[in-house]
Structure formats: C-alpha cells, structure tokens
C-alpha cells in the first residue's frame, strides 16, 4: 500500500542505544505491556484523528484501543495521494498518520512531521531488524528502492534530514509491512504461475491488471520486464529517464495490444476484479487475497522465482501535536505494538513491527501457519472469523523468514519521480 508522490545505517546496536529508554528488562516485560492506564471514571477520552487510506483502518482495532488504552480513534479516510498532500499542506488536520517509509524523502523536508522519541516507545528495541537494519537471521535482504532502514532515523526531533546512524528520533513507528507479489485465480488459469513475466504474458491478454500508483506500478512492471528478458535495470527503485522511457515503451505496447483489463487504485477494486473473474492475474496486496478467499473463491498470492517487492508503513506524528494529544498518541502507539493489533493484522497476511507480542495473542496453530510455513492444523480464519483456509493448507510463499529474505526491491520514490509520474499518466491514457 502506498503513496504515488514519493544509507544502510552504521552498525550501532539498537539494543545498546535504546535499552535504557525502553526499559524492557527481563520478566517485567509482560507486566508493563499490559499496564495501560485506565481513564478516570467520567473522564472524556482523548480523540485522535487517524489519517490514512481505508486499507489501513479497522473499526475492530479502534474499538480495542478504546477498551484497553482509553484512546478514541477517529479515522480520516483519504486516498493514497491525499495522505501525502495532507501532511505537506494541512498538518493540523490530523493527530496521527499512517504513511509509508518510501514516502519519507518527500515528506520529511516539509518539516511537518516530528521525530518520535524512542525512549517513549516501550518496545522500540524489539522492532524487527528487517526494518531497522535490513537483515533477517543475520543476513542482508534486498536493498533496491527506498528500503526502510535508510529512512528510519532523524538527526533530531525537528530535523528535516535523515540520520546516517541510529538516533533516538524515529521517523515512523512501523505498523505493517509485507513482501508483495502478484495474485492469480488458479481455478481460471492453466498451469502454475512461477515468474513475474506472467503479468505481460499474451496468454493472459485482457485478463491482467496493474496497480495505478506510479511509484508501485512501475516496480511491478520492472519486475515483469526483467523477468521476461526484455530489459535489465541497474536499480529498479531508482530508474534513469532512459530506463523510465524504455519501461513505458514496453508497457504502452502491451496496453495497446489489449494486455490489461484494468488499472486499479483502490483495495476494493483489486478484490472485485479478482473475485468477479474479470482479471485472473494482477498486482495484489496480501489482505486483498485474504478478502477474495473469504468469499470462498480460490486466489493465490504468488511466490515468484524473482522474489518480492517489499513495503512498510508506520505511524507518524505532526510537528504541532502537543500536550494530552501527544501523550495519547504515544499511548496508542505503545498499545498498538503490545500484541492485539499485531495478531489481528497477521490474520490478514500482514506482518507487525514486533513479532513476540503478536505471537502471544495468537493461537499456536495460527502462528505456525502464518509465520512458520507449517500446514494448518485447524481451519484458518480471517480477522472477522471467516474461514479462509482448511486444515493442511500452507501459506503462500512459506515462512516469515523465507518470504522476507526473498525481497528483491522496495517501494520507492525515485530521483526522477516527477518525470515518472508524467510518463506514467501518458501510458495510462494511451
């Protein structure tokens, strides 16, 4: 999930840097995680205006946050483009925003977001190293594009520059991240799809769809183009003008040949296109696959040989947030990392910032399915209770380590972003 308009950090131990402030020593962890203050009887809860796309909003999470943390969430639903515009032009119109790491190079220079104090984030030291360091099991993951660890820290609370080494000032507190791929309808396709090139394969003419968010759509297109052998990029996440032109030339020809049924911008559009059978292969997000399966329709989140496109989103605070609202924002974020929300989002196919607390809120068989790549021992249910997998099913792509270690590139805002947007719009209109 993304916004259309949008170095590895030095080897400083996050644990040594944040341990004192985070205060997470040993056995007291579980006690502190549950110790959210109870609002005084009759006290009016603080309301936080939560800005994001509809995809990142959940009434169930808002309800639970009110119940357990005493913070009232008021969702402000806008498009992906509007999230960025609001941050830059209307920072007083929200109290909390869910944005993507790859958008930060466009947003941080505005000065409208504050660096978040890691000492106030109880589990700062437990955030996955996939996002803070770019490693999993001690091994590096792919770094093409706007990898999160490149933009994780600021020099100071109100700095407009990213820090080259970890500091106590964090840009975003991660909410969700994933390894994105294509989705398909295996019941409507002959044979197994194993490569990104399938997106441009003529046998799917008129039945393919591409996400119409330039900074993401071009990455999916680049994965497909490289896979098909038509072109090789130096860095898919930061193309030159010549590489953008070549990409658009290939895409435009495919479009004129009738390859694409649609270009979607909205989560629900992607679900409806796949569920209706209008499209059999397309750019897709994991929760959309879950939504299609919830309807009793077969849908696969493809584990393609070239790897995945990674992304990560997180909470940011406007520079102007003060007093009770600022305290409430930190309270909500700490609650969000404490497990319930992470478990809820895991059942959609997302990954949370802190794995240990999410695991505590999931049944062992759920964790085994979603994170360990093991066959389901019991029916697997979506957050709303709908059964989406039967016993014996294995998660597409396998375990957490397997999926995240195979990221080939990350969502990105390129140096030539304005040129890209112009050329992308010309392609869509062609």
UniProtKB/TrEMBL annotation:
<protein>
    <submittedName>
        <fullName>Extracellular solute-binding protein</fullName>
    </submittedName>
</protein>
<dbReference type="InterPro" id="IPR006059">
    <property type="entry name" value="SBP"/>
</dbReference>
<dbReference type="Pfam" id="PF13416">
    <property type="entry name" value="SBP_bac_8"/>
</dbReference>
<keyword id="KW-0574">Periplasm</keyword>
<keyword id="KW-0732">Signal</keyword>
<dbReference type="InterPro" id="IPR006311">
    <property type="entry name" value="TAT_signal"/>
</dbReference>
